[in-house]
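Dear support,

I submitted the protein below through the web form. The confirmation email said the job was done, but the results page showed an empty box. After a refresh the structure appeared. I'm attaching both so you can tell me whether what I see now is the final result or a partial one.
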Amino acid sequence: MKLGMRAEKRVSKVVLWVLLAIILLVVLFPIYWMLLTGIKPNKELYLPEPTLWTANPTLDHMFNLFKITPYAVQARNSIVVASVTTSLAILVSMLAGYSLSRLHYRGRDVMASAIFFVYLIPGTLTIIPLYVFMNQLGLLNSLAVLIVASLAFTIPFCTWMLKGYFTTIPMELEDAALIDGCTRLQALFHVILPLAAPGIVASGIFAFTLSWNEFLLPLLFNNKRELWTLPVGIQTLIYGDVYMWGEIMMGAFLMSIPVLLLYTVSQRFVVTGLTAGAVKG
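What the results page shows now:
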């Protein structure tokens, strides 16, 4: 009987590892293919049958990428826009989400519903109003216009997400902090936010990824090449029907590294946030 149970457990483990290996292969293959295409010499890129490896790797595509495009400048623009957008979106969303979930005032439910409906509006429908508004503010052709425009998309979602997360935190923890003499802000920063770390990290990842990968806003709001971000800069490597696949894939691979690092590092903070905080006995 015990031998049969052990055999079943071993089979279950083998099946599980096989499934995990297949999922990992599917997830990592696009990244591998970008890197492989970026280091293949040109003569191998246009073979009738593509190969899954190369015997002659080269960095010519990477050097050419930095030579023919202001890739470093556009990478700096992407980092600035994504970092500032994420920081402001999280700051505003934390306060707004806390207000909508904890405080009681007239019009709170209407405001919460309005924020949710704003997020449901397709982004393409807001491009023209945003363009007119930014033009009136004199923000076009600047990095500030990308930050402000990105906040219009990230804040509603992050606010609604954090509102739901704050609601799951027991009110007794905050009441205990208030009874002990904490102000409302002290209770928020010392009690609620540590417990809400997983939701804050998830919201930050969403805001960063959305800003980092944004293509339409920097293309329409900035017509100066030195103000473009990486998604717009990479598409300039397409000349009519000529695709510089080596440079495009190398640029896309380098562009994916910060996001991959963010997701890898943030996993630790999510686990930490799940066990942060304690109930006073």
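Response: this is the final, complete result; the empty box was a page-load delay. The radius of gyration is 24 Å.
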